[in-house]
Amino acid sequence: MSRQFRVASAVCIAASFATILFSTGGSGAKAQDIQIPVAEATGSSAITVDPRKSEFRPAEQPLPQPERTAPDADSEALPSAASLADLVERTALPVSLSREMECLAGAIYFEARSETLAGQLAVGRVIVTRASSGRFPSSYCGVVYQPSQFSFVRSNGMPVVNHDSRLWQQAVKIAVIADSGAWKSPVEGAMFFHAAHVAPSWGKIRMARVDNHVFYR
Q1: Is there a single domain that holds both residue 89 and residue 139?
Q2: Does 27 fall in a domain?
Q3: What is the pLDDT of residues 66-121, one digit of tens each?
Q4: Is residue 63 part of a domain?
């Protein structure tokens, strides 16, 4: 076979291969492994080329996940209720009380334990309002133990309380409700009160009497 004939045959084979390769890729047909002869120094051999591996495939990015916020234990709402009595009944007793809540519950207990739930809540909300007003100490204990404010405070302390008594447990529940603001006091916003049997000359705005106390702004 002459040299010119071998060259022409090689050109024809290469053209045929190129035609097959491009027609396969462009027609949408499934690409097959194609054997391409490759001359090596040690002789003739073949390597396998997969056209699929030559395509550009962008790296897959994970889908963004929604942010998850850890629940805040202090933000848990009290159960809904149709009345204050119902709310007190539905409110669970805390497993333990912080010192601040002990002070709030103690003030409610010693000032109003014999009064209605509304009267107890009114006392509790006065302490909460004072603590957030900026005009009084900013903690419940600071408000309760402020000198000359509550008659039950003696030597910067409270009398001993039976924590197993029904009245104490009721005062604790009222303290939880007052602290959370889950139920409005009948004199919401009041910051002062006195026993109804006395008449101090206060230059304050009188709001209303609730049970045995008169409340003022």
Answers
A1: yes
A2: yes
A3: 333 333 333 356 778 899 999 999 999 999 999 999 999 999 999 999 999 999 99
A4: no
